[in-house]
Amino acid sequence: MSAAPGRPKQARTAARQGEGTPVNAPIYLDYNATTPIAPEVVEVMLSCLRQHFGNPSSAHAFGRVAAHTVATARAQVAALIGAQADEVVFTGCATEANNLALLGVARAMGGSKRHLVISAIEHPAVMGPARQLEEQGWSLTVVPVDGFGRVSPHDIAQALRPDTALVSVMHANNEVGTIQPIAEIARITRERGVLLHTDAAQSAGKIPIDVDSLGVDLLTLAGHKFYASKGVGALYVRANTPIRNIGFGADHEHGLRPGTENVAAIAGLGVAAQLAQARLPELGAQLRARRDQLHALLSAAIPGLILNGHPQQRLPNTLHVSFPAVSARRLLEHAGHIVAASLGSACHSEHDAVSGVLAAMGAHAVRAAGAVRLSVGAMTSPIDVQRAAQGLLEAWRTATAP
Predict the structure, then answer these.
(1) Residue 352 has what pLDDT?
(2) Which of 32, 115, 254, 390 is deepest in the core (most CB within 10 A)?
C-alpha cells in the first residue's frame, strides 16, 4: 500500500480553522516562526513511521514503496512552485538548502566567477554562507533596502560585475513581511548571465509561487513554515544550473545531498505542498482579513502605533508594528498569558539588540525597541484576533503606566 495521499480534506480543515483558540490557552501569533503540523501531514507521516519504513535505495518491496512515496512528494512539491519533479532536491531544512544554493554554486564556479550579491535583510541562513564565501576570498556586495524593506532592482543592476556568479534576494522578509520584486531582478540577472537564488521559506503557502514567472534559478522552501514538520526542506534547482554538492557520501538527491532520505518528513512535506496549492486563494484572503482586523483594532486603540514593512507588498499574514513608549520585550512579557508572539525572527530574538532588518530599513532605536512581529495562520479565528488585540492593548497600558 502506498503512502501517497488522496484529495486534501478541505472541508474538514476549514471546520477546524473556524473553531478558535481555547480561552485558557495563549493565542498563537507566531506562524512566521513555525506552524503547527496539519492533521493530514501527521497522518501520512505516521503511516510511513509505522508501516512504510523501507529505505528508498533498497530494491525490495519495502524500498520500492518508500521510493514511490519520495517520488510522489517530489512531484507534489514541484507542483506547488511550478517546477519539474527532477528539479526538487530534498534537504533537512531551509538553512541547509540555502547553504547548498550558495556554497554549491560557488563550488561549481571554481575560480571563474567569485562575486556574490545579497540584500541587507537576508536571513542568517543566507548571510552566514555569504560571509563564509567572503572569508574564502569571494567578493561580497550587500545591497541596501528602502524604508519599507524593499530592494531596488536598479541597485541590483548597479552591483553586478563581470565576475558576479550569483544574486540571492529573499522572496519575502521573515520579520516585516515585505515582498521583493524578484521577477524584475530576474530580468536583470538573466540578461547579464548571472544566477538568481531566492529564499522562499516565508512565502510558500501564503502567496503564489511560480519559478518561471519569478525567473529564478534556485529557490528554497522550509516545511515547517507551511504546516509540515520541522527537519525537512527543499531546494529547487533549475535544469542545467551549475551546482555541486557540499556534503559527501552517496549519490542521493541527484548527487547533491548525500544521506538516506527522511521518508516520513518528505511525505509530510508533499502533503503540505498539496494542501497549500489547493487552499492558497482562499487561505490568502483569510490571512489578509485576520491581519488587517488585528491592525485595525490595535491602531484604533493605540495612538502612535507604527507599521513596519511595505503597506501593500507584504505577506498577507504578517503584521510587524512598533508600539510607542514601551520595550517590545516588556510588552510581550505582560501579554504572554494571552498572546504568543516574537520580537522578530525566532532565529535571533533572544537579544535586545536592534533587529538587523529594522536597522537596514533606517528605523530609529526607539521605534525598533517597540517592534513586535504578529503573524496569523490558518487556524487563527476572528475571535482569536479580538482576544489578542485586547490582550496586547492591556499589556501596553500596563507597561506604559507611570
Answers:
(1) 54
(2) 32
pLDDT at 8 over 90: no
Which residues have a Cβ under 8 Å from the Cβ of 203 and sit 6 or more positions away? 171, 172, 179, 209, 315
Local structure of residue 366 (DSSP, 8 states): H
Contact 357, 176 (CB under 8 A): yes
What phi and psi values does residue 65 have, to the nearest 5 degrees?
Answer: -65, -45
Residues in the chain: 402
Beta bridge partners of 195: 166
Question: Minimal CA–CA distance to 383: which of 16, 12, 27?
Answer: 27
* 224 touches 260 (CB < 8 A): no
Label residue 110 by pLDDT band (50, 70, 90).
confident
DSSP for 71-98, written as a single string? HHHHHHHHHHHT--GGGEEEESSHHHHH
Annotated catalytic residue 347: yes
| Catalytic residue from among 15, 285, 296, 347 | 347
Q: How far apart are CA 27 and CA 387, in angstroms?
A: 8
Three cell numbers, residue 73 = 512528494
- Residue whose C-alpha cell reads 512579557 in the numeric block: 333
DSSP string, 287-330: HHHHHHHHHHHHHHHSTT-EEES-SSSB-TTEEEEE-TTS-HHH
For 42-76, the pLDDT digits (tens) are: 999 999 999 999 999 899 999 999 999 999 999 99
Dihedral sign (CA 128, 130, 135, 136): positive
pLDDT tens digits for range 144-180: 999 999 999 999 999 999 999 999 999 999 999 999 9
CA dihedral 256, 257, 261, 263 (to 10 degrees): -70
CA 117 to chain centre: 20
Task: Check the CA dihedral 263-268-269-273 and report its sign.
Answer: positive
- 8 A C-beta contact, residue 339 and residue 388: yes
Q: How far apart are CA 232 and CA 34, in angstroms?
A: 13
* Three-class SS state of 201: coil
Contact 135, 111 (CB under 8 A): no
Alpha helices in 51-144 (DSSP H): 61-81, 94-109, 124-135
Query: In sequence order, what are the residues at sequence separation of 6 or more whose Cβ sits closer than 8 angstroms to the Cβ of residue 115?
Result: 138, 139, 140, 141, 161, 163, 164, 165
Query: Which residue is it, cell 485576520?
Result: 290
